C-alpha cells in the first residue's frame, strides 16, 4: 500500500500523549549547567542612565552578571535590518517594555529570580508611541511606502454609481504556543557551540549565535528536535534566547539554558501585527466591484523584524478571491514602542483578506443583497486568464466550484431564509450567516528562501534515515516527508525515520514557514531518493537479468515497490530490498545522497509591484453561523461548514488536523483574543485568565470539514497543496457572520465592526443602535431640522 495518501499518525503522537516527548526544558541539566535570565526594561521608551548590579551579584548562587560590554561579538542583530539589541547599553535607548538590559547566570532558578529583583536600572523617560494613529501623526515609520496598483482607480470612482468608504481596525494576536521560548547551549572545543533551540529557523539561530559570540558560522551547530508550538512566533524571535544561552556558555565555558516564563514570554515577545485599513470601494447596482482603494498601516512595534515582508503579503492578498479591474493598495509599517511584532500563521495574509471580505459584507448591506451573491459575482473566473493586481494568472482555479459545492452542502439558501425569519421575531437574540473564501499564495515572497536540501542515508539493514531543513512544531512535516521517502524508495513507512533538524546535516536552510515545509523539504528528499534509485537500478539491472535467455540489462525497467526490487518486464525476477542494499554495500555503491530543490517560476519585483510571487494558490471556503445575545453581546458559533482545496493530500488525517486547528485559531483572533495594554505600554492580557483563546466549549456545535479532491495541481510534490496557513483565514467567516447578524440591528446603516468582535465590542454596537432608534426623530422633523440649517 502506498504511504502517500494514507492516514499515518503524527510521528510523535504516542510520545506526546504519554508525556515522553522531549522539549528543551525536559532535557536533564548537565552537572555544571547554568540557568540564565535577563532583567528587562521597565519603560517603553527611555534612555538607560545607569545599572546597579552590586546587590544582585552578592546573592548566593549567582555566578556572573553580564551587560552589553561583555558581549564577545556583535550586540546588534535582526533578520532584515540589524536594529535589535541583545542587551541595551548604558547611554542607549530602550524602545519597549521588556528590552533585555542585564543577563544573569546562576546555579539555580531561585537565585536567578532573586537576582533579577535585586538589579536596579535607572532610566530617563522619553515620550512613547503605542498606536498606529500616534505613529502616523509623529511620522514614525519602518521602511518605505509600498504600492500595488492596476487600472485607473480614481477614474473608476468618479464614474461609479455606488461607493462606500470606512476604516477597519484589526487587532493583534498572541501566539500562545505551549512551550515558551527556550534554548540550551553547550560549549565545545576551540570556541565551538552546540545549541538546542525551540526554533522554526535553525540557520538564523546559527548565524546570530555565531555573530553574537564572535565565531564563524561553522563553529555553531543548532539542533531543533521539535517545538511545543510555534505559529510564526519562533521564526525570528527564538534567536535572542539562543544567543543569550550561547553567550554565557562561551564566556563561562559551562552549559547554559534560557527558558522564558510564560508571563514574560507573553509580555515581552512580538505578536500578530495590528492593522488599520482605510478603504473605499466603487461598485455597480448588481454588486460588482469596479474599484478598490485601500491604505494599509501595520503596527510593527519597535524594530523591523519581518514587518516589511508581512505587510507585503497583506498587500498581495488584499484582492483575496475576487477580480477587481481597478485596484490600488498602499502599505506602510508604523514604528511604535511595543515589542517588535513578528510572523504569525498567515503572515499578513489574514489582515489583507479581512479588508476585502469586510467590503463584500458592506456592499451587500448597502444594496440589500445577500453577501454570498456579491461574493459569487466578483470571484476570479476559471478559464478567462484573469490576473491578480500584481500580474499573476490565477491557475488551477476552483473558487467557483468551492462556492457552489459549499452553498449546496451547507444548505445556505434555506438557512438564510430561516435566519431572516428568526431575526424578524426574536427580541433576545440575533443570528448571522456568512461565507468567506481564501485564495492563499504558496511560496516565500523572498525568492532566496524558496530552496531546500535533504540528506537520505540507507543503512545495510535496509532502514532509511532522512535529515531535512524543516522543523517540527506539531504540523506533521516529518511524517509527510517519511511518507514521501517511503514511496520514492518503495519501502515500508516503518523503515524510514526522520532525524532531528540540525545545521551540520542541512546547511543554509529556510525557515519552516509560509506553509512551504513539506513542499520544499519533501521535494528535496524526493530528489535525493531519485538519485539513489537511479544508482541502485543500475546496480540491480544486471543482477536481475539472466544470461542464458539473453535478457538485456535495463535500469529503466527496474521497479522499487513493497520492499522488493524487480524488472517490470519480468516481475517474477525480483529480490528483497534488504538483499539489494547488502550487495550494493559490498560492491561499494554509495548509499547516501543529498537532494536539492528550488521552487520554479517565482519572482516578484517590489519596485513595480508586479510579478509571480507564488507557485500556486490554496483555496477554501467556510460558512459560519453565529448566535448573539442582544443583552450581553455573548456570541456562540453554532455551526461551521468548511470545504478546503487540498489538492491530493499526502496525509488526509494530518491535513484535517491542520484545517480544524487553523480555523479555530482564526476564529479566536476574530472573536475573543484581545490584546489590552495599560497607558504606560504594559500588556495586561498576559495569561489565560485575561487572554481568551478558544476553549473546547467554543467548538461549533456542528462542524463539518470536507476536502475538495483536486488532482490538477501538478506543480507541487505529489500534487498536494499546503494547508498550514490557509485554513486560519477561513476563521474570518465567523467575524463576517457577526457583522451580518449586526446588520439586522443597524436598520438602514452599514454595520461597522472592529476586529476582534469581542462580547464588549458587540454589546457597545447594539447599545449604540438601540439608543439611536430610541432617540430617532421622525422623518418630518429631520427634514425640518435640515432645512433650518
Description:
- With 789 residues, the protein is of the alpha+beta class.
- The chain has 3 domains: 13-128 and 175-268, Aldehyde oxidase/xanthine dehydrogenase, a/b hammerhead (Aldehyde Oxidoreductase, domain 3), CATH 3.90.1170; 275-445 and 606-771, Aldehyde Oxidoreductase, domain 4; 451-598, Aldehyde Oxidoreductase, domain 4.
- α10 (349-367) runs parallel beside α19 (732-743).
- Helices cover 31% and strands 25% of the residues.
- α9 (307-316) links the parallel β16 (289-301) and β17 (326-335).
- The protein is built from 21 helices and 31 strands.
- It has an 8-stranded mixed sheet, with helices on both faces. Strands 9-17-16-15-10 form a 5-stranded mixed sheet, with helices on both faces.
Strand sequence of the main sheet, in spatial order?
3-7-1-14-11-12-13-22
Which runs of at least 5 residues are low in confidence (pLDDT < 50)? Answer: 774-789
Number of domains: 3
Name the CATH architecture of the largest domain.
2-Layer Sandwich
| Count of individual beta strands | 31
**What does the overall shape look like?**
globular
Instruction: Tell me roughly what share of residues is in helical segments.
Output: 25-40%
Descriptive keywords:
single chain, 789 residues, alpha+beta, Aldehyde Oxidoreductase, domain 3, Aldehyde Oxidoreductase, domain 4, eight-stranded mixed β-sheet, five-stranded mixed β-sheet, 25% strand
Write the layout of secondary structure elements.
Elements (H helix, E strand, L loop, with lengths): L12 H5 L16 E7 L5 E7 L1 H4 L4 E5 L9 E2 L6 E2 L7 E2 L5 E7 L2 H10 L1 E6 L6 H7 L2 E10 L2 H7 L2 E9 L11 E6 L5 E5 L4 H12 L6 E5 L14 H14 L3 E4 L2 H7 L6 E9 L5 E13 L5 H10 L9 E10 L13 H19 L3 H8 L20 H11 L2 H14 L3 E14 L8 E8 L5 E5 L8 H13 L6 E3 L2 E2 L14 H28 L13 E4 L2 E4 L2 E7 H10 L5 E7 L4 E3 L4 E3 L3 E14 L5 E11 L6 H20 L30 E7 L17 H4 L2 H12 L15 H16 L4 H10 L1
Helix pairs in contact: 6-7, 9-10, 10-11, 10-19, 14-15, 17-19
